[in-house]
Design brief:
mainly beta, 10-stranded mixed β-sheet, 7-stranded antiparallel β-sheet, 4 helices, 47% strand
């Protein structure tokens, strides 16, 4: 734990009150200050084989100090106030991590004693939200909505008209199929679909992944990405954007992962690429692990880009998910004149803690 964190904690939890006991000269007895603060920790499921617990992330804490009537705890970035010294806390970030803990015990006069310790806990990966696309027909409307129309090229001079017609988006045999078609429709020369969980599901921190097989053809531009849930009030790029999967048919078998934020949008410098062989003939898993400290991008569990996150970025709030297949535009490029149709196939989308 950094010293600045400890100092901040003490300020928040009554540093100024440590001298607020009764004046010994006014005839009122002086309360004894808290002392001998102890912290006991029981990691649930801890065994010799599982020294950091059973994966539930639960820890039982017992705090005790002489002359104390209450306790305050800073744990996992959260402040807890306790009337007694018992606390059960569930850590949620997946993996094995060491968490600093600061405890203060108080008497009735506001005097306190503090202790800094830590606990190491294993949290198993758990699914927060998923769509396995295992029911034939239209996608589940409780999970997905749509952006419809042209949206003036959605800021990228794209050529398609987005619909929610079964011709453009359908689930068949456990696979979601987003299909781009060359056709005259509502003044556009191509149709496709753009699905999103806005207003239905969003999350802050975790792992988002898609298992997908990409379309073929010059001008195709499939994507799996996230936008800040505050986009309607903050606008873009202040809301933040995380592109997990972007590939273009004019440069096949290359995945782009990028982040857009104020001053680093458009042709963002926060980007990296990885070669994905046979991306149009085989399914691959494209993922991002997102925390307050970093956003790590993977293909088939191969890490290829780490973005350093911080409190100054937009990437510390809820984001929603988007799946789409665009045509042409600034990134998609020239559409092959022989293009007729192409399909973006998705096996599943999953979000973990």
């Amino acid at each position: 734990m950094k010293k600045v964190g400890t100092f901040t904690f003490l300020l928040l939890f009554g540093f100024q009150s440590c001298s607020s006991g009764s004046d010994a000269g006014d005839g009122t007895p002086v309360l004894p200050a808290p002392s001998n603060l102890t912290v006991k920790m029981e990691v649930v499921g801890k065994t010799n084989d599982k020294p950091d617990g059973d994966g539930s992330g639960k820890v039982h804490f017992t705090f005790n100090a002489a002359n104390a009537i209450s306790y305050k705890v800073l744990i996992d970035g959260q402040a807890k106030e306790l009337k007694n010294g018992d606390l059960t806390y569930e850590f949620t970030a997946s993996g094995t991590k060491n968490y600093p803990i600061i405890v203060s015990a108080y008497n009735a006069a506001g005097q306190f004693v503090s202790k800094i310790t830590s606990v190491t806990v294993f949290v198993a990966r758990k699914i927060l939200w998923a769509d396995e696309f295992d029911v034939n027909g239209s996608p589940n409307t409780s999970k997905w909505g749509y952006d419809l129309g042209t949206g003036n090229g959605f800021g990228n001079n794209e050529l398609q008209y987005y619909t929610n017609r079964p011709e453009n988006v359908i689930i068949e045999n456990g696979i979601l199929k987003i299909k781009a078609i060359k056709e005259e429709y509502m003044g556009s020369h191509y149709t496709s679909s753009r699905m999103l969980t806005k207003g239905k599901f969003s999350f802050k921190y975790g792992r988002a992944e898609v298992r997908a097989k990409l379309p073929v053809g010059g001008g195709t531009w499939p994507a799996f990405w996230m936008l800040g849930a505050n986009i309607d009030t903050a606008g873009w790029p202040l809301c933040g954007e995380v592109d997990i999967l972007e590939s273009v048919g004019n440069n096949p078998n290359v995945n782009h992962s990028s982040l857009h934020s104020p001053g680093r949008s458009g042709n963002t410098p926060d980007t990296a690429i990885i070669t994905v062989p046979n991306s149009a003939t085989e399914f691959h898993v494209y993922a991002a692990d997102w925390s307050a400290d970093s956003i790590k991008f993977y293909v088939d569990d191969q890490l290829f880009y780490t973005y350093v996150n911080s409190a100054s970025t937009p990437f510390n709030q809820n984001f929603f998910l988007i799946l789409n297949l665009a045509m042409g535009g600034n990134f998609g490029g020239t559409v092959d004149p022989n293009f007729t149709n192409a399909t973006f196939e998705v096996d599943y989308v999953r979000v973990y803690n």
